[in-house]
């Protein structure tokens, strides 16, 4: 199968309305429809990821590649990377996608030396710049793969070998340079192996200090080159390591506070990672907003029956409705977006399966966005929430929160009270959510 016209489609996917049964047409995603003062395209800011879409061969821990991808066949590695770019930009065109994302080694082959790898990345960066001139697609974020190569088996920034730390610095510098050159809106640090497999050979304080220094240098360099977007950390509790230092939103918040990085580093959150940490997606998003760390989202999901990161396309409308409800309440994305860090199943071997998967998930997101908009307009969740905490709005109770009352004063007031429990109304609120989705 040739990389030329890989998908066999000429015309971009169009909005056809709810009555359509065409898997290659949008039923809910109407890019120019207004949702709370912005177009749907501006609210959702979809991004196609390079790695799962064009680099993953369809293998799993128990079986090899199942996909027929001509750019994965033996040959000149840099030429294959150029062929892959042609197919990638064709998918961006077919989906009319506003953004894409990449790891450095997804787009350009690794060489025998760091400088050789940097040269390869620069070559593909130049190609991307040329192709972006004739396309609407922009770069949501770039990142460096500091986990696949065997040199990173004990981590990158947290590695016990300072030479590995230095090599990782060189790789990240090249990746953020490429992101900056392509006018990327964010830069992501995904610490796939920044953790441990056993505490028997791990000095946690030393490794956390190394990671804090690494990120501090990256923030300094970001300012030096004039990169305007935030650095994003993507929390994940485990897999491939037993324990990773960016376990969840709360853990990363404490880490950033300790190393004075809160102003420059935000979060890129993913549903499946939230579940692996024992949380819901909505929990992680709400806590990120509460901590001032919300940045961007990976819009994929896991399988409820499997305890590992399956990276499936997001299809759960009610789950996404709650996430978008929180986002819209806070004004929506700034530099962030919805990145499809998702892969088709290894049995989905037809080229058009990749297009259909994106279309279906974009529709699910659009449907959830519209439900969230209606919920906010009706105050469906906000009104009961305000009523539940209304007692704290009085002048006296606000004075407590502002630090204007001592423990003795509040305790004395408490002696005059006899508070009675009130229903939390969980089932009523679950019924409200179901009316909208």
UniProtKB/TrEMBL annotation:
Its EC number is 5.3.1.5. Its cofactor is Mg(2+). GO terms for cellular component: cytoplasm. Mg(2+) 1 binds at residues 234, 270, 298, 341. The active site is at residues 103, 106. Keywords: Carbohydrate metabolism, Cytoplasm, Isomerase, Magnesium, Metal-binding, Xylose metabolism. This is Xylose isomerase. It is found in: Cytoplasm. GO terms for molecular function: magnesium ion binding; xylose isomerase activity. Mg(2+) 2 binds at residues 270, 273, 309, 311. It comes from Aureimonas jatrophae. Homotetramer. InterPro entries: Xyl_isomerase-like_sf, Xylose_isom_bac, Xylose_isomerase. Belongs to the xylose isomerase family. GO terms for biological process: D-xylose metabolic process. It comes from the Bacteria. NCBIfam families: PRK05474.1, xylose_isom_A. It catalyses: alpha-D-xylose = alpha-D-xylulofuranose. Its main location: cytoplasm. Binds 2 magnesium ions per subunit. The gene is xylA.
